[in-house]
Amino acid sequence: MTATGNIEMAGNRNQTIAETVGSYGKRLFGFIRGRVNSDEDARDILQDVWYQLSNVVNLEEINQLSAWLFRVARNKITDRYRKKSPEFLEEIGGQDEEGLESITGILLSEDGDPELDQLKGSFLGRAVYCPGRTARKPKAGVCVE
Q1: Which of 83, 104, 132 corresponds to the end of one domain?
Q2: Could you give the residue ranges of the DSSP H alpha helices within the chain?
Q3: Which domain holds residue 31?
Q4: Closest to 29 measured CA to CA, from 48, 42, 47, 44
Q5: Are residues 75 and 130 in the same domain?
Q6: Do residues 93 and 104 touch, judged by C-beta distance below 8 A?
Q7: Cα–Cα distances in angstroms (integers) from residue 142 to residues 8, 57, 91, 124, 131, in the given order
Q8: Statement to judge: residues 9 and 79 lie in one domain
Q9: Is pTM beyond 0.85 here?
Q10: Model confidence over 117-143: pLDDT tens digits?
């Protein structure tokens, strides 16, 4: 194939991708946004979908483009939630710039306030022991998933 033929094929491919982004962008973003916690997460996932589309060697092999895009989006959403790492309780602790008490201090306090006790019980019900060493923390600890 000649260089001119390659350039023409690349131009057609880019045109097809641009048309797809224009046609499906808003619907796909709305679909993703309805399943994630923030616009930022939705934009990141949508970008991943477009990136995966751009890596398809032959776009003509995709029979139903709409179904393919939404399937990839669903898979990317699932991947995002599977990869979400837990937050370590030690990382949440400390005083803020106004000197307010750390989350650790609040959770371990015993002041007898029923509302605070309910909040602590709710939070601690989601806390789990995270044994072993990880890249983020060299020691075992308590984390919140």
Answers
A1: 83
A2: 3-33, 39-54, 65-83, 89-92, 103-108, 114-124
A3: 3-83
A4: 42
A5: no
A6: yes
A7: 57, 45, 10, 10, 8
A8: yes
A9: no
A10: 777 777 666 655 555 544 444 444 455
For tokens 């803020």, the residue is: 96
Domain count for the chain: 2
Co-location of 52 and 94 in the same domain? no
Give the C-alpha separation, 119 to 3, whole Å: 67
- The owner of tokens 């306090």 is 109
Burial class (CB in 10 A: 0-12, 13-18, 19+), 73: buried
Among candidates 92, 111, 115, which has minimal Cα distance to 102?
92
Strand, coil or helix: 134? coil
Written as six digits, the tokens of 107 are: 């959770």
Whether residue 101 sits in one domain with residue 59:
no
Q: pLDDT tens across 98-118, in order?
A: 555 556 666 666 777 777 777
From the number of C-beta atoms within 10 Å of its C-beta (0-12, 13-18, 19+), residue 39 rates as exposed
CATH code at position 45: 1.10.1740
